Amino acid sequence: MAPRHAQSPARKSLTRRGKAVSGLALTTLVGTALWAWPASGDDHNSHPDAKHGTPTTTSRPDAAAEAADPEAAAAFRPIPGLSDAARKQIPAGTRQVLVVTGQGVNATSSAVILYTRAKGSQNWRPGPTWAAHNAAHGWTKDHRYGDLRSPEGVYALTDAGGRLAAPRGTRLPYDHNNSFVAHGTGVEGEPLAGAFDYVIAINYNRVAGSSPLDARRPLGASKGGGVWLHVDHDGPTQGCVSLKPAVMKELLRTLDPAQRPVIVMGPPGH
């Protein structure tokens, strides 16, 4: 739920891992299985937001390794601060989890940490903590178009784009498109210029495998859409999560489809 931008039916220079792909090579994933990297009307000033996710089972530490080596058992470190329900929705094959924790249910500021783990390990390692903004009215478990709240939940991160070209090393499919423009002003009257220079779609009520500009809403327009990670404009969003430009570029270089990245977001204890 960022500020509104112009929707464009045409996609320009969609790149996958640095190679051009013509047209919309989309996989219409309308179901709810997060592990299937699915979709989940539009809440940023003209960009989309929706939830998806039938919980999947998280992989468990190797019991034999624990019994044989107590010190190794201590290395099985879960991601802190998450509810059991959220942990169970993280797919077993996921090795990158972006955790967004709001300061409160109605707060507009959040802390963001990228957790990673090696293949076969349950030792989640945190990266740096980044400051972020979320929606003007905080968080909700039942997001609706225009409610000025960010949707809580666990969502896949499969697609990116922006007005500027993808930073070198970007791994997510990236739609470089001049239609990524935020018009008007933010909730607190701040200018929105550059807010959509870099965007990572959050798979809430969207078709995974498509440009963030894709306006299709599998759960219906009333459930909102266009919930993105995007460049911070020094104020709360309409439903998105916004980060400084340098952080957005770092995430674009780091998030790897092969590691099935997801975002877990909400107030404390989400």
From TrEMBL:
PROSITE patterns: LD_TPASE (PS52029). Pathway: Cell wall biogenesis; peptidoglycan biosynthesis. GO terms for molecular function: transferase activity. InterPro entries: LD_TPept_cat_dom (IPR005490). Residues 61-71 have a biased composition (Low complexity). Keywords: Cell shape, Cell wall biogenesis/degradation, Peptidoglycan synthesis. The keyword Ribonucleoprotein does not apply. Residues 41-52 have a biased composition (Basic and acidic residues). Residues 110-265 form the L,D-TPase catalytic domain. The active site is at residues 230, 240. It comes from Streptomyces kasugaensis. Residues 41-71 are annotated as: Disordered. This is L,D-TPase catalytic domain-containing protein. The keyword Cell wall biogenesis/degradation applies.
